[in-house]
Structure formats: C-alpha cells, structure tokens
Amino acid sequence: ESAATTPPSIDGNVLVAKSLARLGVTHMFGVVGIPVTSLASRAMALGIRFVAFHNEQSAGYAASAYGYLTGRPGILLTVSGPGCVHGLAGLSNAWANTWPMVMISGSCDQRDAGRGDFQELDQVDAVKAFSKLSEKAKDVREIPNCVAKVLDRAVAGRPGGCYLDLPSDVLRQKISESEAENLVAEVEKSRKHEPIQASLKSEIESAVSLLRKAERPLIVFGKGAAYSRAEDELKKLVELTGIPFLPTPMGKGLLPDTHELSATAARSLAIGKCDVALVVGARLNWLLHFGESPKWSKEVKFILVDISEEEIELRKPHLGIAGDAKTVIGLLNREIKDDPFCLGKTDPWVESISKKAKENGEKMEAQLAKDVVPFNFLTPMRIIRDAILAVEGPSPVVVSEGANTMDVGRSVLVQKEPRTRLDAGTWGTMGVGLGYCIAAAVASPDRLVVAVEGDSGFGFSAMEVEVSDTLLNPILWNCLLSCFKLLSLMMQTLVRYNLAVVVIVFNNGGVYGGDRRSPEEISGPHKDDPAPTSFVPNAGYHKLIEAFGGKGYVVETPDELKSALAESFAARKPAVVNVIVDPFAGAESGRLQHKN
Ligand code: ADP
After folding, report:
1. Are 191 and 152 within 8 A, CB to CB?
2. Which of 174, 186, 463, 530 is spaced 20 to 30 Å from 249 by Cα?
C-alpha cells in the first residue's frame, strides 16, 4: 500500500510512542495532561512501562537516576508550561550529575504561540541552560528523527539531558500508518553508532610510567566510572598494582568498601599525601576540594580520565586522558601486564594508609557499638547498616539525602556492589529521594531499595504538612490540604506500583534538627513563630504511607528499629520507618558548616 492510499490514522502522540518503543525505550516517568495523555497510554500499549507521578520534579529526578543506573536515557514526560518548568528540576539534575535523560514536553499550539495560549511558554528557550540538545517537532513527520536525535545525544560523549518539544497541533496532526512506518524504519536504519575511540597509546604509556614511578599513588574514582561500568577493570588495576583507592560518595561500591586497599577511612591522609592521583570519572570540583592544597599536596600530579575533553581542559591536570573509563582502565591494565609492578602490603605508603584506616575504623566502631537512646545518628545507622548487610541476594540500592543523615550514612553504610548508592550528588540536591527510590526499584526489580533520609530531605517530595496547630488559619489550611494531597500522592506512587522500597526517615524535628537559633536571632514581631529550621516534633511521617495501604512504623529504640527493618525488608513492600532522633544530635549544615 502506498502512503497516499491509506487513510491518515496515526497522530503525533501515537508516532512519538511508536518511535520511542522502536528506538529501545522501555520506561518513562512523568505526569500526564493536555496535550500528552494519549502519548503515555499509547506508549504503554506498545510495551513501555509508564510510571505516573503527581509532580514532574520527582518524576524528573527519577528519570535522571534511571539514566545513571541503566546507561540509557531516562525519559520524563510533562505537559506544557508549568509541567515543563517543574520538570526542569530533573533536567538540571541530569546536567549537574552528567546523567543521560530526555525531557519530552507538550507545548502550546504553534498558531497561538505569542498570544497567551493555554500553558504557553517558550520551552526551548527555558531549557537552554540544562539541555545538550533541544529539538522541536514542527510537523508530525519530523517526530521520529527528533526522537532519535535527543535519545542519541543524551548518551553521546559526556552524558546529560536533552529536550524534545511537541506542540499540541503536531500531536494532533495525522499521517497514514504506512507513512509512519516508513519514517520510523528510516530513522532506525540511519542511527549512528558510537565513534571509534581514538588511539591513546602514548597517554596510556605516560600514565603507567607515572604510576610506576610514584611513591604514594592513589586511585580515585567517581560516578562517571560507575556509569561507564568500569568495576571489573578497576578491580583488576587495584589487584595488579596494589595501589590504594578512594571512591567518591557515589563511586562507592565499584570496589567493595571492605576491600583491604580502600582508603575511605583514611581519606585525609590519602589525598593529603599522595604524589600521583589517577582520577577516573570524577570531577575535581568541590567534592574533591578542587584538587588544591591544603587538602591535596601541592606537588600531586593528577592523571585525569574523563569522557569529556572540556573537563580535562578545565582542570589542566598533569596528564589528561579523554575516553571512556572502562576502555581506558582496560588499556592501562594491558600496558601494566607487559611489565608488572605491585606495591605490596609492606610498602610504607600502603602500610600507612591501612594503619590509619584501621585506627579510624576502630574509633568509629567504638562509637557505633553504643546503643544511644534517645537515638543519635550513629546508633540507628549501625542498625540499618547491619540490616542491609544481612539482606541475601543482590545488595539493596541505598538512596540517601539530608545533611546529617547523608553525612553519617556515607561513612557508616557499607557499599559492596557498583551503582548501589544514590545521594544528593554534585548539586547536593535535596528532595531527590523518592524519585530515586522509584527509579531504582523500576530499574533493578531484583533489588530492595532502602532510602535513608533526613526528615527535611524526605519532606521535599513526600509531605510538608507538619506545621504546628497554632499556625492554622483557613487559607493556610486550604493550602496545606492541597499540599498534603499532592505530596502524599507521591507516596502513593510507591504503593500503587507496589515497589520494594523501604523509606527510613531520621526524624529530628527539622532542617538540621530543631531550633538552633542564637538569642540574637530570636527577636522582632515574629519571634514566637517556629524557627525556620523547625518542623513539628515527632511528626507522624509513617502515617502518610498508611493512608495509601502501605506499612508504617514509628520506632524509638534499637529493638523497635531492628524489628521494623526485619519485617519490612522481608516483606519487600512499600514501607516508611519513622525513626525518632534526638533533635540536638546532628550538626547545623552537616559537615558543610563552613559553607552556611
Ligand atoms: P563524582 O560526583 O562521583 O565525583 P562527577 O559527577 O563529579 O563524579 O564526575 C563524573 C565525571 O565522569 C564527569 O566529568 C563525566 O564527564 C565523566 N564521565 C561520564 N561518563 C564517563 C565515561 N563513560 N567514562 C569516563 N568518564 C565519564
């Protein structure tokens, strides 16, 4: 049948769904509404799992984390105008963390643009700061090509977010089934493959020679190495050379935290004294103190392995190797094997690091061993660590946010497998927790997901209803009711899809915990209002999930926590464990006091 003889029966929504399915998309996250509702239903009918959220921000966070966990762009679907703006939270998070993601937004009718159309916004302009590539389909026939372009660009080179704009008139426009099929088949055929990696022979030789000559070498790896799935190569490199290693927070697990060459517990010594640092898939940004003294030695020589040439130019390392982490580390291993060298356990540098790590580890264990009630951060964290370690089968994915909760959790919780830790990341974004949980549960259905959250971090995307009764007035109450409806429906997403997610809330009654104002800060006409950091003490966060048929626990003692974790981990059903923590146990701004 020719295109001309079949009646036009495929509209833009169907064609987008068809293009996504045929180009390999299996999951989407989003919020439906005008003009993209049928796009989501059509995608589902074609076998794509559509996870429907109530807030584009969380759906966007989910899409970005899905991109990181799977190596395929996470897809966020939003409506126009406000939907797109809410989705920017996710798109910017993908940009900041260099994770592949595609935001697809409906937009207003092209004819009515500029005249105040329903939910009108120049979305291509609005996403500019966070999008590697933005495409607008101006005609239905452009859809398959636009879809392929954004999907491919999101993963090409340094991963990141891309944007696809779909005007509502284009989504309604129809073509024949045969024409649609031809357009999609054409794009499938012409899809470009990854460019061949340039020869890196001389860089590889120089890197190996630097490592060989170093007295105090260190291997640092980050979430770029995790994204690249470089775990086997890194393990081999560490085994071959005996060089101590230091993961960044999300690099944790590429090699097990329990490995004898892990320098995590001797971090200050390792970075302060190393003379050559091989940094793989991790930026020398604030998280690594910009690679500068006094945290790092002035003399340290950096060997930077990064997929992004731009990153290497920015940092001006002693030696830069632009390439995929897995490939580059594989090449280093091959080069080393020809003429092996290995530090050995009695090497003074290795010895000093393991001694320090052991000492610090013992100090920490002594603190952790105490059962402190009312709970501080350490006691419940130890119980959570042990419960996670006791899970049989694939390691759970740990999602963590909140100032103190994330800080303490980073040093206490043990990561044994790659890509099993998701936290506030490069931007220190709070509010990512629930979106990340949902993404992890969907991306790795065989793993339990355990979120270890501060009450403040949790509240961003779960609930903000905890205000004191004295503050209630009718306007506020209405506003609260709608907040409650919206945010608690987020919790419902866990229940609705019956995901194996246990959210543990460290409930210390506020941002950083309780009211920490100095006397000078308590004055003026509103001095009797709660502090900006305060929430209702002992808020019943667990009750939110009970409202939707999930399981809630509130715990105040080690035994109660142990039993809640044993039961909820075994059930593999959505649950919230509300852990009541002493409001004065944490520190203001966690470990970043100097930045507040
Ligand atoms: P961390 O937060 O763990 O320190 P960053 O997000 O700062 O990690 O750095 C990740 C780096 O990894 C980015 O500079 C990014 O360009 C890089 N990267 C992404 N994918 C790859 C890859 N496949 N191979 C090597 N580097 C990669």
Report:
1. yes
2. 463
Long-range contacts of 329-335 (CB under 8 A, 24+ apart): 329/225, 329/230, 329/233, 329/234, 329/236, 329/237, 329/280, 329/305, 330/233, 331/200, 331/204, 332/204, 332/207, 332/208, 332/237, 333/233, 333/236, 333/237, 333/240, 335/204, 335/205, 335/208
104-157 pLDDT, tens digit per residue, is 999 999 999 999 999 999 999 999 999 999 999 999 999 999 999 999 999 999
CA distance to 126, 406, 551, per residue, from 442 (Å): 29, 23, 20
Using CB atoms within 10 Å of the CB of residue 527, give its burial: 0 to 12 exposed, 13 to 18 middle, 19+ buried. exposed
328-263-596 Cα angle (round to 5):
100
Residue 326 is classified by DSSP as: H
Q: Residues 493, 54: contact at Cβ < 8 Å? A: yes
Q: What is the pLDDT of residues 222-281, one digit of tens each?
A: 999 999 999 999 999 999 999 999 999 999 999 999 999 999 999 999 999 999 999 999
For 357-380, letters b (16+ CB in 10 Å) and e give beebbeeeeeebeeeeeebbbbbb
Where in 114-236 does DSSP place strands (E)? 134-136, 161-167, 174-176, 217-221
Phi and psi torsions of 167, nearest 5°? -60, 145
Q: How many CB atoms lie within 10 A of CB 146?
A: 23
Give the pair of three-digit tokens for residue 298. 């002035």
Which residues, listed in sequence order, are joined to residue 579 by a DSSP beta bridge?
A: 506, 555
Bridge-based pairing state of the strands 397-401 and 49-52: unpaired
8 Å CB contact between 396 and 450? yes
d(CA 516, CA 505): 20
Residue 224 Cβ < 6 Å to ligand 1? yes
What is the ipTM, given to two decimal places?
0.99
DSSP classification of residue 4: T
pLDDT tens track for 514-572: 777 888 888 999 888 888 888 778 889 999 888 878 899 999 999 999 999 999 999 99
227 CA distance to ligand 1 middle (Å): 8
471, pLDDT greater than 70? no
What six digits make up the tokens of 162? Answer: 């891309």
- What is the Cα–Cα distance from 121 to 81, expressed in whole angstroms? 5
State pLDDT tens for residues 11-50: 999 999 999 999 999 999 999 999 999 999 999 999 999 9
Q: Is the dihedral of CA 52, 54, 60, 64 positive or negative?
A: negative
Please tell me the residue having the least CA distance from ligand 1 atom 7. Answer: 283
Residue whose tokens read 């006094």: 294
Find out whether the beta carbon of 297 lies less than 6 Å from any atom of ligand 1. no
- How close is the Cα of 33 to the center of ligand 1, in Å? 35
Q: What are phi and psi of 452, to 5 degrees?
A: -115, 100
Closest atom of ligand 1 relative to the 228 alpha carbon: 23
